[in-house]
């Protein structure tokens, strides 16, 4: 059975559409056996992936950004396990997941060759927040609002877009009052800046909110930052780009297998870089260990070398 390549043409603001023909040409030149299809709107990637899985395609290849990959993954997962191998052709803005898996970002032919050769296949974890499966991260609070603001900016692309979105969000955001419970502790309701729950260690192209996360350790990396003045948010932001924020006052970093979130305010949710239309007050987050096989590069993308001053299961204050 050939591979099924599912392209999200809107990735990188229609940049993926511009490269659709090039992708197909390269794959054919490499002798790859594949069928190609493009999504037609939000959520269509999950439908196409589910159909491809039921038809026996393997691998199922997501061509696009992190949101496009996430849609495909959601279509592939049944009862917490993906039913086929995932391949990736990175055509998005940040390409955080591909970066972490060592897939070339600046060389489309090299990325396609890695896919075709499929020398390294890893069994990686997935997370789930309510009905949404995520392969990289789940965010409530400032991070979600920043993405909403970034979506309104029409003149930027790549990591600069997400930095600009964060700056706009800091100026406009109101801090929700949220409580947490996890297998290791309870945090009473309080105003928070954001909460970040992840499988991976990079988001938005430049942020390392969970610098110690491992994609195959069976654990969620769970961070909460207390609300603070806007000037102190601006001071904290640069440290999230090298992971040293985990040592800041009012930042709490844990590793766990589940998190329950209870909020007094509706929570905009960002799942793998995509804003969800619902804004619940309660969210249940769980880990699915080793739930997906993914074609990867030889070496993961580098991460900042942050030394713990405390156990990852304890809090900083």
Describe the structure.
The protein has nine helices and 17 strands. The radius of gyration is 19 Å and the shape is globular. The model has no long low-confidence stretch (mean pLDDT 91). It has helices at residues 11-18, 20-29, 44-54, 66-76, 96-100, 108-117, 142-152, 158-172, 230-236; strands at residues 3-7, 34-38, 60-64, 77-78, 81-82, 85-90, 120-129, 132-134, 137-141, 177-182, 185-198, 220-226, 251-256, 258-263, 269-271, 274-275, 282-296. 48% of the residues are buried. The protein has 317 residues and is an alpha+beta fold. The protein has two domains: 3-118, Probable inorganic polyphosphate/atp-NAD kinase, domain 1 (Rossmann fold, 3-Layer(aba) Sandwich); 134-291, Tumour Suppressor Smad4 (Sandwich), CATH 2.60.200.40.
Q: Which descriptors would you attach to this protein?
A:
single chain, alpha+beta, 317 residues, Rossmann fold, Tumour Suppressor Smad4, globular, 28% helix
Q: What's the CATH architecture of the largest domain?
A: Sandwich
The arrangement of helices and strands along the chain is: EHHEHEHEEEHHEEEHHEEEHEEEEE
State the shape. Answer: globular
Gap from first CA to last CA: 55 Å
Q: Roughly what percent helix? A: 25-40%
Biggest sheet record: 15 strands, mixed
Q: Averaging pLDDT over every residue, what do you get? A: 91
Could you write a compact summary of the structure shown?
By secondary structure, this protein is α+β, with helices and mostly antiparallel strands. 28% of the residues lie in helices and 32% in strands.
Helices and strands, with pairings:
Layout: E1 3-7, H1 11-18, H2 20-29, E2 34-38, H3 44-54, E3 60-64, H4 66-76, E4 77-78, E5 81-82, E6 85-90, H5 96-100, H6 108-117, E7 120-129, E8 132-134, E9 137-141, H7 142-152, H8 158-172, E10 177-182, E11 185-198, E12 220-226, H9 230-236, E13 251-256, E14 258-263, E15 269-271, E16 274-275, E17 282-296
Parallel strand pairs: 1-2, 1-3, 3-6, 6-17
Antiparallel strand pairs: 4-5, 7-8, 7-17, 9-11, 9-15, 10-11, 10-14, 11-12, 12-13, 14-17, 15-16
């Amino acid at each position: 059975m050939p591979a099924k390549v599912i392209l999200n043409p809107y990735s990188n603001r229609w940049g993926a559409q511009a490269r659709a023909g090039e992708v197909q040409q390269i794959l054919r030149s490499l002798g790859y056996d594949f069928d190609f299809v493009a999504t037609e709107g939000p959520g269509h990637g999950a439908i196409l992936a589910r159909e491809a899985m039921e038809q026996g395609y393997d691998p199922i290849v997501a061509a696009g950004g992190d949101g496009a990959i996430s849609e495909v993954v959601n279509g592939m997962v049944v009862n917490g396990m993906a039913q086929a191998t995932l391949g990736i052709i990175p055509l998005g803005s940040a390409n955080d997941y591909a970066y972490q898996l060592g897939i070339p970002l600046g060389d489309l032919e090299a990325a396609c060759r890695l896919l075709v050769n499929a020398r390294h296949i890893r069994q990686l974890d997935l997370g789930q927040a309510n009905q949404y499966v995520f392969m990289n991260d789940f965010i409530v609070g400032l991070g979600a609002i920043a993405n909403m603001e970034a979506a309104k900016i029409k003149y930027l692309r790549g990591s600069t877009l997400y930095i600009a979105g964060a700056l706009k969000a800091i100026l406009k955001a109101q801090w929700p009052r949220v409580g947490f419970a996890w297998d290791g502790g309870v945090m009473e309701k309080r105003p928070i800046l954001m909460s970040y729950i992840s499988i991976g260690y990079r988001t938005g192209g430049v942020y390392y909110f969970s610098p110690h996360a491992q994609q195959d350790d069976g654990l969620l990396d769970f961070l909460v930052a207390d609300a603070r003045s806007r000037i102190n948010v601006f001071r904290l932001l640069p440290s999230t780009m090298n992971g040293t924020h985990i040592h800041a006052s009012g930042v709490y970093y844990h590793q766990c297998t589940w998190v329950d979130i209870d909020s007094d305010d509706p929570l905009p949710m960002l799942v793998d870089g995509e804003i969800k239309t619902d804004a619940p007050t309660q969210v249940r987050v769980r880990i699915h260990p080793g739930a997906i096989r993914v074609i990867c590069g030889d070496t993961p993308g580098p991460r900042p070398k942050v030394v713990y001053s405390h156990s990852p299961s304890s809090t900083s204050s």
